[in-house]
Design goal:
By secondary structure, this protein is α/β, with parallel strands linked by helices. The protein has a single domain, classed as Protocatechuate 4,5-dioxygenase, Chain B, CATH 3.40.830.10. The protein has 9 helices and 12 strands. The strands form 2 sheets. Strands 2, 3, 4, 7, 8, 9, 10, 11 and 12 form a 9-stranded mixed sheet that branches. Strands 1-5-6 form a 3-stranded mixed sheet. The chain is globular, with a radius of gyration of 17 Å. It starts with 6 loop residues before the first strand and ends with a strand. The mean pLDDT is 97.
């Protein structure tokens, strides 16, 4: 592999997760050891994981990433929201790689270029977005070897953009040893009882493997997710790549960590997979 020199500097290492490799490795591995999850009976095509600081979301995210443990993937497409005020609906990195304390993850420029021919996207540099990067240390610990990255961040969370992206991802990834990751948190800053109701509705939509239904759930105010478009895009892509089932494997809130249930953020983990006949 050619030497990569244009590396996106991490804005969150040492803040959202540990900044040293030994501490980060130990924390991620502890979360994975504690994730008592039964693997779906089939091939996992994609997962959904939360993206808050590891103290809050790490124990839930581990349930999703535990399902990828030992997988030999060449490329991972991580689709996340973009929380910062860029104008373009779809964004990607302008750098050649991402860095975490666990090492460098090269961007797959060939597949990204192929994707950009199907979906208009803006490359950005020195971005401050946390929701994509925070999934990378888990991937670095669970996948069997080195992998390349297709990083996608959505400002436009509409069904039209999500569907177009999902279809394009499936076209580009078909025939590749690939896995998809949707990065999202659930409801924000409701009390625990309200959050549980809202998040239950959204996760039921995820389990139904119905991306159109997720937008209807949000439209009716029954449930919310900051990465709704990311989840829907990964669901559509997973379906086209052969997934026929979805399973929610974990749910918790920030209140379960802090003990403060007055204003919580919800976190869910799920898998999209091709079931065994």
């Amino acid at each position: 592999m050619a030497t990569v020199t244009d590396i996106r500097p991490s804005p969150i290492a040492g803040l959202w997760y540990p900044g040293s490799a030994p501490d980060l490795r130990a924390l991620v591995d502890e979360y994975l050891r504690s994730a008592d999850v039964e693997p779906p009976r089939g091939q996992v095509i994609g997962v959904m994981a939360p993206h808050a600081g590891y103290r809050y979301s790490g124990p839930v995210a581990a349930y999703a990433f535990k399902l990828l443990e030992g997988m030999d993937a060449d490329v991972v497409a991580v689709v996340s929201p973009m929380h910062h005020p860029y104008l373009s609906p779809v964004l990607t990195t302008g750098h050649q790689a991402y860095r975490t304390p666990l090492g460098v993850v090269p961007v797959n420029r060939d597949l990204l270029s192929a994707l950009a021919k199907r979906v208009k996207m803006e490359p950005v540099r020195m971005d401050q977005e946390h929701s994509l990067e925070i999934e990378l240390p888990f991937l670095q610990r669970v996948l069997a070897g080195d992998f390349t990255l297709i990083p996608i961040m959505l400002r436009d969370q509409s069904p039209e953009t999500a569907r177009e992206l999902g279809h394009a991802l499936a076209e580009v990834l078909r025939g590749q040893r690939a896995v998809l990751v949707a990065s999202t948190d659930l409801s924000h800053y409701y009390n625990q009882a309200t959050a549980n109701v809202l998040d239950k509705a959204f996760l039921e939509g995820v389990a139904a493997f119905d991306p159109d239904g997720l937008f209807e759930i949000e439209r009716r105010g029954r449930g919310f997710a900051c990465g709704l478009g990311a989840v829907a895009a990964v669901m559509w892509a997973s379906k086209e790549l052969g997934a026929d089932r979805a399973e929610v494997v974990r749910y918790a809130t920030s209140g379960d960590v802090t003990g403060d249930y007055s204003q919580v953020v919800g976190y869910g983990a799920a898998a999209f997979y091709r079931s065994e006949e």
